[in-house]
Amino acid sequence: MSLAVARGSITGLIGPNGAGKTTLFNTIAGALAPDAGRILFDGEDITGLRADQVFHRGIGRTFQIPRPLPALTVMENLLLAPAAQVGEHFWAAWLRRGAIRAQEAAHRDKAREVLEFTGLAHLMDEPAGVLSGGQHKLLELSRILMVDPKLILLDEPAAGVNPVLLESLVERIRLLHRRGVTFLLIEHNMDLVMRLCNPVVVMAQGQVVTQGEPAAVRSDPRVIDAYLGDAL
After folding, report:
1. Which of 111, 181, 188, 195 is closest to 157 using CA atoms?
2. How many domains does the chain have?
3. Core-most of 131, 153, 219, 226, by most CB within 10 Å?
C-alpha cells in the first residue's frame, strides 16, 4: 500500500468493506505497527510510534463508532487532550500550584472556544454519554482540536448522523480546511465524498486501485467493478 496525502487537501479514501481502510488508519495513528515499510509525516519518520506520540505530533483521528468517556462531562473530555500538563507531575500539586491553575484556566478557555466552534458549547457541562451519535462525532472532532492538529483522519463521519448534524459537521470540516488543516477521510456516502473530497483514492484488497478527481474516479471502470457496481 503506497499513499501520499497532499498538505492542505481533503483526501477521500473509499473502497469495499474489508479493503483495509481502517487498518490503514490504525497504522498511521499508531494503534498498529506495520510489518514493513515506513510512515512519513511532515518530513519525520513516525513508523512504530505509540498512538499518543502520533497524536501529539499533530495527527488526530476519529472512529466510525465514537469513543467518548461517557461519565465525564463534554468539557472534561476536552481537558484530557493537551499533553505535558503541569498537574500530571507528582510534586507539582505542592510546588507549582500557581502554574497548574494558570494552565488549567488556559485549557478551559481554549475548550470553550472549540466547543463554540463545533456547536457543543451549550452541552459542555453534560455527561458525554447523553449526547446523540452526531454530537459524539462533533465531540471527537472537538477533542482533536485541543492540540491544533495538522492532519485529521476521519473514519466514516456520516455514519449514523442525522442530516442536520451532518451538515454542521461538513461545515466545520470546510472551515478547518480553510484554516490549513489537512484531512484524510474514509466514507461510504458517495454524495458526501463527491462534494467534499479532492482527490479521491480507491482501495481494494489492501491496495490502491486508482486515485484522482472525484468525477474521473466515479466513472473509472475499475472502481465500478471493485466498489460502486450497481450503485451508479
Report:
1. 188
2. 1
3. 153
Measure CA 116 to chain center. 18
Beta-carbon contacts of 91 under 8 Å, excluding residues fewer than 6 positions away, are none
Domain that holds residue 33: 10-73+133-231
Q: Among residues of the chain, what percentage have pLDDT more than 90? A: 64
Beta bridge partners of 182: 151
Rounded alpha-carbon distances, angstroms, from residue 168 to 116, 118, 138, 165, 202: 12, 8, 9, 5, 26
Is the CB of residue 224 less than 8 Å from the CB of residue 14? no
Residue 43 lies in a domain: yes
Residue 81 belongs to some domain of the structure? no
Whether 1 is covered by a domain: the verdict is no
**The domain that contains 187 carries what CATH number?**
3.40.50.300
State residue 187's pLDDT score.
92
DSSP letter for each residue of 50-94: -HHHHHTTTEEE--SS----TTSBHHHHHHT-SSS-GGGSTTHHH
